[in-house]
Amino acid sequence: MEVWFYHLERRGREEALPVLLEKALARGWRAVVQAKSEELLDALDQRLWTYADDSFLAHGQASDGDPDLQPVYLTTGDENPNGARLRLFVEDAPILPSLGAGPYERAMLVFDGRDEAELAGARAQWRAVRDAGLPASYWAQDAAGRWEKKA
Asked: Which of 40, 130, 143, 144 is buried deepest, with most CB atoms within 10 A?
């Protein structure tokens, strides 16, 4: 399993997450998005329904019922009720304890590089992931907003 760190500089989380989730679903993967706060989950819930005029991402939370049927599951916990192959971490949600709910093909920490607290948290998680012996790579946005692998 790989752990990818996505450093947002040009786009916010609300713009980047739908694109990343669409790519995962196109691969046939289900996804879990883990945040630290219910407030952010509620905001993401709304965003995934409305991020494009002609599209939406089917998703749900525990309160919606049938979590095993959700292609994208939003949570603050470390469960994986939909058999996701991808786990996305936002809001500096802790990576390592949650990976045991896998098996995952990939984990991604999506962090806002303009937020000093999130940046510091991502650096600490990078060290923890590397210390645990997991392969990690770092991705940043170029001037056009495309992702470039840096390490």
From this structure: 40
Task: Give the C-alpha distances (Å, rounded to integers) separating 31 from 77, 104, 143.
Answer: 14, 9, 28
Q: What is the pLDDT of residues 52-97, one digit of tens each?
A: 888 889 999 988 989 999 999 999 999 999 999 999 999 999 999 8
Amino acid at the residue 129 = V
Measured between alpha carbons, how far is 117 from 23 in angstroms, rounded to an integer?
Answer: 28
Do the bridges between strand 2-8 and strand 106-112 make them parallel or antiparallel, or are there none, so unpaired? parallel
pTM of structure: 0.94
Q: Which residues of 102-118 are buried (b: 16+ CB within 10 A; e: fewer)?
A: eebebbbbbbbeeeeeb
